[in-house]
User: Which sequence fits this backbone?
């Protein structure tokens, strides 16, 4: 019986082999080959030059993930405590922006954040900029928001926040209420119920949320190109440039991708180990 | 929980699909077999005829596509690439399955050198005779075997007259600390380094490593001093039209498009000289639809198509008759005379062209140097 059902998995296995495993093998092969062919480590030797880009990307991705967590967790928690009708509406509202093209949404952030954009015009109208100038004795015409690292982080948070909220919410909403009641019966106050019961039990959701926000953030190129202005390159930009930019060097691009993937995998493994320990502790 | 993760992952994959949507694919007509209009092609039995075109964004009057489809029954798949370099990568990786491309001069030379273009059968392109002689036999295709010029124009500085103190006349403005945070640099190694080379008084086609490194240093210094607000290609339209930056460098035709939305903008071909470019239609060696490709090229080279294109994209046409009669065409269409100042920006007069140079293809070692320096600049 079980064997028969497993036949249904064949399309997915084929899909994985074709579009996940094969490309990874190609990346590895490319990373270790020279432009003229043949084995080389030269692509990795150049990696040192890009340390700045690596640290910048990981820094911004970590910040974005933390912000998503800090916003996403309370939202998921509150949502799960509301009635089913509210939950449904809230869910639709969270998903709604994702029905629109990701590039378009990021593009509209450009016109909001520009020096002469919607936000700055609003600040001008309500006198915020004049107020700022009179307090600090400066003479600015606008707040510089575009083309900063802050704008890039904002873009990531905006785009990836649903991927943090959904897994956390789905875990919390399924929490067994009797566990919470038991904790109360045993004399735990609200804070302790949260810290000792709800938080540890929701950790799997938090971990998958972190993964789903961190991984796309660290490799993004569209967001940093549009909102970061391209003056401070991120890993995604660097890799894209090797394939699509003036620098056509797929071997180097593959090498950078490989190093990035390895770092990300290591991060994830370490984090999941930590998560596993927690889960078992709770079970015991 | 698992279900939710699966669902979110699926959404994420769907989202990433959109990410690759950088090319515009024109919708196919809903009735491809409308036999009432189609008498000319006469090849209904051999199935649907198709031509795959890759050009730049905002670079054609799209009505021409429909017109061509109606006249010939050939379906046009019109796609766009961001820059010559991006196009080159698409061709190299085999990602783009194109028949007709519209690269610029120096990229054409490189593609010919790498044997990627097909020789054209000019007997299928009678409209080639309408192209002015000054746009033929140029360095990229000296024997006129591979190309039919599409547009030409100049590279220059676009600036917002309300945001600068004096008229801009020199490439210095692109590196001047005075305009820190207000300058948009072009995100394209060839043009960006050309600006620096010209400012230093060197040739834009120099192969001298010391000169190129000096130019790079000029760019890098300006960048570290915060001169550049950002590096842009077509994002420039929004930024300059919205008054978000004072100075930028781009192409004359695009300046005229921006001017329609912001009349404070001015354009100058700097006194040190500049680049004048020719973009030409070519057919790829491995093209599947060479016959259709030549039909498309012939259609686009016609005077009517050139007039329509010029009116829409504001790039000068190499079709002599179209270029000369454009002011009349404009007056007829809009009922008012064309501002000849604008016409001269589009179709630069001889005295401006005299200080402009065509890009030449650079040797491989210099291209590698360009690429390395460009990546370094980004870091």
Assistant:
């Amino acid at each position: 019986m079980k064997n028969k059902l497993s036949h249904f998995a064949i399309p997915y296995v084929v899909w994985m082999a074709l579009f996940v495993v094969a490309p990874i093998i190609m990346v590895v092969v490319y990373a270790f080959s020279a432009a003229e062919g043949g084995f080389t480590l030269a692509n990795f030797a150049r990696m040192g030059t890009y340390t700045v880009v690596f640290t910048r990307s990981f820094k911004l991705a970590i910040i974005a993930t933390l912000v998503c967590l800090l916003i996403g967790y309370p939202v998921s928690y509150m949502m799960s405590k509301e009635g089913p009708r509210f939950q449904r509406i809230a869910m639709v509202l969270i998903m709604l922006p994702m029905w629109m093209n990701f590039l378009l949404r990021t593009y509209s952030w450009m016109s909001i954040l520009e020096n002469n954009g919607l936000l700055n015009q609003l600040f001008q109208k309500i006198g915020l900029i004049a107020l700022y100038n009179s307090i600090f004795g400066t003479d600015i015409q606008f707040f510089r928001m575009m083309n900063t690292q802050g704008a890039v982080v904002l873009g990531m948070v905006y785009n990836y926040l649903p991927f943090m909220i959904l897994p956390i919410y789905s875990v919390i909403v399924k929490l067994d209420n009797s566990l919470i009641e038991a904790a109360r019966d045993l004399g735990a106050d609200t804070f302790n119920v949260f810290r000792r019961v709800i938080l540890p039990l929701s950790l799997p959701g938090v971990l998958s949320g972190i993964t789903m926000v961190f991984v796309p953030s660290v490799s993004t190129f569209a967001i940093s190109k549009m909102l970061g202005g391209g003056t401070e390159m991120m890993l995604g930009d660097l890799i894209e440039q090797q394939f699509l930019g003036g620098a056509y060097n797929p071997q180097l691009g593959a090498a950078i991708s490989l190093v990035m993937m390895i770092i990300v995998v290591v991060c994830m493994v370490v984090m999941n180990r930590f998560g596993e320990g927690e889960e078992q502790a709770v079970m015991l | 929980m698992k279900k939710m993760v699966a669902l979110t992952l699926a959404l994420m994959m769907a989202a990433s699909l959109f990410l690759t949507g950088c090319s515009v694919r024109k919708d196919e007509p809903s009735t491809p077999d409308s036999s009432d209009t189609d008498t000319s092609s006469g090849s209904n039995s051999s199935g649907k005829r198709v031509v795959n075109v890759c050009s730049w964004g905002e670079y054609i009057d799209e009505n021409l596509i429909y017109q061509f489809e109606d006249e010939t029954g050939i379906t046009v798949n019109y796609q766009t690439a961001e820059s010559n370099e991006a196009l080159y990568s698409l061709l190299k990786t085999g990602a783009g399955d194109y028949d007709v491309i519209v690269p610029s001069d120096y990229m054409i030379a490189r593609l010919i050198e790498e044997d990627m273009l097909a020789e054209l059968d000019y007997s299928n392109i009678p409209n080639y005779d309408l192209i002015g002689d000054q746009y033929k036999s140029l360095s990229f295709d000296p024997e006129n075997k591979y190309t039919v010029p599409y547009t030409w124009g100049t590279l220059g500085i676009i600036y917002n007259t309300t945001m600068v103190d004096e008229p801009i006349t020199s490439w210095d403005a692109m590196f001047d600390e005075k305009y820190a945070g207000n300058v948009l640099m072009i995100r394209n190694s060839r043009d960006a380094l050309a600006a620096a080379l010209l400012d230093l008084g060197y040739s834009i086609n120099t192969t001298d490593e010391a000169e190129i490194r000096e130019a790079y240093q000029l760019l890098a210094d300006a960048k570290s001093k915060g001169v550049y607000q950002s590096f842009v290609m077509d994002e420039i339209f929004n930024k300059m039209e919205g008054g978000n930056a004072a100075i930028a460098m781009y192409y004359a035709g695009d300046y005229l498009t921006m001017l329609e939305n912001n009349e404070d903008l001015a354009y100058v071909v700097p006194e040190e000289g500049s680049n004048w470019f020719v973009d030409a239609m070519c057919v790829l060696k491995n093209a599947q639809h060479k016959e259709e490709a030549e039909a498309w090229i012939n259609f686009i080279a016609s005077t009517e198509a050139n007039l329509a294109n010029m009116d829409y994209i504001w790039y000068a046409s190499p079709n002599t008759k179209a270029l000369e009669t454009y002011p009349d065409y404009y007056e007829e269409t809009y009922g008012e005379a064309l501002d000849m100042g604008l016409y001269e920006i589009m179709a630069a007069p001889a005295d401006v062209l005299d200080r402009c140079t065509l890009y030449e293809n650079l040797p491989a070692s210099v291209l590698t140097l360009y690429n390395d320096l460009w990546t370094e600049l980004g870091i």
In short: Chain A has one domain: 48-283. Chain A touches chain B through 49 residues (CB under 8 Å). Chain A is about 75% helix and 0% strand.
